[in-house]
Amino acid sequence: MRVLHVFRSYYPDSDGGIERALAHLCAGTSRLGVRNHVFALSPQPASRPIRQGRAVVHQRRRHLELASCSMSMNTMLFFRRLVRHSDVLHYHFPWPFADVLHLLMGRHKPALVTYHSDIVRQRRLERLYRPVMRRFMAQMETVVATSPQYMVGSPVLSTLGHRQMRVIPLGLDERRYPPVRPEEVEQWRQRVGEGFFLFIGVLRYYKGLHILLETLRHNRHRVVIVGSGPMARQLREQADRLGLNDRVTFTGYLPDDDKQALLYLCRALVFPSHQRSEAFGVSLIEAAMASRPMITADIGTGTSYVNRCGETGIVVPPSDAVALGEAMDKLAAAPDVAAQLGAAARQRFESHLDISRSAIAYRDLYAEIIASAAEAAGRRIA
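Now predict its structure.
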């Protein structure tokens, strides 16, 4: 079967959490016979389809971005051709422009949507967009939430009343990651030491890193922050203002080889995201895969699906610098406890977060949706 995934950005332009999860899903389902294609916008689109991993990527130019919604002015007919050659459409929400694409060009094709996140920041615009979103959701055969927590806690999902909702957690394919290399480990040990707390992710407003830096005013923990993003300059200025430059290292974006080495060296992954824009946290799966405990905030999303308090790490109230510091103190003072939590995190990765599980679930769902659409078409003809 041929599946067309639809999301606003993809490799090689972007390496965010949804893009990474999608790439791993394409890898997992391709082993099960699924042919994956991805439609995305790009500031410099390739003139021909390009292969990225186990997917073929079709790009169109991004002409405009309004309230984080990328748009293209000349993509309707191009998208319709992609739809025509696909067996099922798989949308990745939120991307309001994709809702419009589907309503105009894709509504006669079997489709599902993975609901990655609520629209949190653009509340006023969301109210204007809501009627379009509801029409779009109503045309989906299935709406997939990425965790039970998000399905229950989302103000949109909890009121949709959709005839068919599923929970299929995100997953990662360990085979796509490089092994930990001793030379990389030693290079980073010389630079940042070991036993530090690690953050990995795009530096966005909802990641709660300003809370983490505030926490460091009251202890002596060392933190390595991996990633780039719109908050980078502001966070560096905050660290400088608080006199934390000797204990906080900003590395910028790093490839997987370096991240694997840092995960090997760290005490735990600290992930203080404090708003529901953080729907899952792919770097949490990476930490669990590396047998590292996690510290997260309870925001009613998939972060508390990956990290189970007292089992794989510690969960604290959101925006609580004191509780965050106490969690860091506990893991720093008890390496044996950290190791036990890390071992349990690895077990959770193997039992719940390996890509093979979600790949089978999606493969079966694709087949079910295609069969249901064919049956419905047969009844109309009869």
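The chain has 15 helices and 16 strands.
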